[in-house]
Design goal:
Elements (H helix, E strand, L loop, with lengths): L17 H26 L3 H11 L2 H4 L6 E4 L5 H7 L9 E5 L2 H10 L5 E5 L12 E7 L8 H11 E12 L4 H23 L2 H13 L3 H10 L3 E8 L4 E7 L4
Parallel strand pairs: 1-2, 1-4, 2-3, 4-5
Antiparallel strand pairs: 5-7, 6-7
Helix pairs in contact: 1-5, 1-7, 2-4, 7-8
Length: 252
């Protein structure tokens, strides 16, 4: 298995070309979209709902301002986006939920048809927005699927306003005894159950592999610093099995 600290980004089949790797990730999420929500809740024991809300509460002051512009990257079926909207004023600027999987995004539109949201099919690596467009950008369990993590952070930095904030809720590979328990569940039980219930065994083998490949917190904090973010921090959840990265673009 590749050294996770050396991995530039997500790979489904050890692709060398980043655009091909991104296409394969998109195809994979389109294929598992019909069972994605049910299996996420089941395999996380319902903790995903709590973590979305916890992530949103970190930015409650900013979300409370009706003029704040908010982008939820890799929004999937829209649950993190909805957690952000729940803390927004009723007549605030709509939250943008962006994803490159058309099947996932359609489910977001259906689930949250009346939400104060703008659903956009787009690529997180090439955001369709000018510089300094958003006050807050979040991503929940989607950032690790980008084909190049450093380039993804650079693109986020570009579209954040000076002083804008970033929140990334992401899975993590714990160390020590916690890591042994985590590996038993995440690398053996989860792929078996997910593959059985969804009919997509390969896709549910990719998910734990993507976490193994993703930078550990010290490396991820380094990447944030190298992307010129300030105040980078990590708040570990569930004995380090997940966590919330937060950072700020310098400026007023």
């Amino acid at each position: 298995m590749a050294n996770q600290n050396a991995a530039p980004g997500a790979r489904v089949r050890n692709e060398l070309d980043e655009s091909i790797a991104a296409d394969h990730v998109r195809d994979m999420f389109n294929s598992i979209a019909p069972t994605y929500d049910r299996l996420n809740h089941l395999l996380s024991f319902g903790l995903d709902r709590h973590w979305w809300k916890k992530t949103a509460r970190k930015f409650q002051t900013l979300l409370a301002k009706p003029e704040s512009r908010v982008l939820d990257l890799c929004c999937g079926t829209g649950d993190m986006t909805a957690a952000l909207i729940a803390l927004r004023p009723a007549k605030g600027v709509p939250v943008v939920g962006l994803d490159f999987s058309s099947e996932m995004l359609q489910r977001a539109r259906n689930k949250y048809a009346s939400a104060n949201a703008e659903w956009v099919e787009g690529d997180a690596m090439h955001l369709p927005y000018p510089d300094a467009s958003f006050d807050l950008i979040t991503s929940a369990f989607g950032f690790r699927n980008l084909s190049n993590y450093a380039a993804g952070l650079a693109e986020i930095f570009r579209v954040l306003k000076p002083g804008g904030q970033l929140g990334i809720l992401e899975a993590n590979q714990p160390d020590g005894f916690n890591g042994l328990l985590y590996n038993l569940y995440f690398h053996h039980i989860l792929p078996a159950v997910g593959g059985l219930l969804s009919g997509h065994k390969a896709e549910y083998r990719y998910l734990p592999a993507s976490v193994q490949r993703f930078p550990r917190p010290p490396k991820m904090l380094q990447l944030l610093s190298e992307a010129d973010f300030a105040r980078a921090d990590w708040d570990g959840l569930l004995l380090g099995a997940a966590g919330i990265y937060s950072a700020q673009k310098p400026g007023n």
